[in-house]
Amino acid sequence: MLGSDFWPVTIECGDLVLRPISRRDKREWAEVRQLNAQWLAPWEASNPLPGGRLPSFGEMVHSLNQQARQATALPWLITERRPGLAKPALVGQLTVSGIVWGSAMMATLGYWVDRRCAGRGIAPTAVAMATDHCFAVLGLHRMEINIRPENGPSLRVVEKLGFRSECLRPRYLHINGEWADHRSFALTAEEVPDGLLARWLREGDQSAKAP
């Protein structure tokens, strides 16, 4: 699936909207990231090369959109409709990356959410929305999420959504200046025949909402 059939795409659930990231989002994105600098720092990807740096916002958007055009990524902003606002407010970011077609039909999902919105079910709802799109619309078979063992809030998200804990990957990604272990979680389409979002909305109120 290539071209406009694959991307851009916007998906919605109630007041929550996943929409494509663009260069026009620079100011709002930077403001939210600055407010969450300490909250996100322990989980922030870093460049292991000597003197390496992370891409600028423009470079990130260009790279993500190029990957989207190649049908290997889905770069969304997580936004929320709020009374009195002309457009949904930015509350996080979710990227489906490393999409592999052919016999694998799989992808990896990563996300972050504004700390001020924590505890309201935004992260699990967004993850469920994106996973359902990948399974039901794109026909992918497997979704994987890799999380630092120390990242309690993110661990609660995948546990509440029913992602299986598969393994520990030692020194898997370069995070906050060092190679860090990650726990790998996965879900296949057969495990959620009626959709992950429907299951989360049906069962989520029976337990504490994850941030």
TrEMBL record:
GO cellular component, one term: cytoplasm
UniProt cross-references to SUPFAM superfamilies, sorted A to Z: Acyl-CoA N-acyltransferases (Nat) (SSF55729)
Keyword Acyltransferase: yes
Pfam families assigned to the protein according to its UniProt record, in alphabetical order: Acetyltransf_3
GO molecular function terms noted in the UniProt entry: protein-N-terminal-alanine acetyltransferase activity
Keywords: Acyltransferase, Transferase
InterPro entries (UniProt xref): Acyl_CoA_acyltransferase (IPR016181), GNAT_dom (IPR000182), N-acetyltransferase (IPR051531)
Tagged with keyword rRNA-binding: no
Domain N-acetyltransferase residue range list: 16-190
Protein family (similarity comment): Belongs to the acetyltransferase family. RimJ subfamily.
Protein name: GNAT family N-acetyltransferase
Species the sequence originates in: Arthrobacter mobilis
Lineage start: Bacteria, Bacillati, Actinomycetota, Actinomycetes, Micrococcales
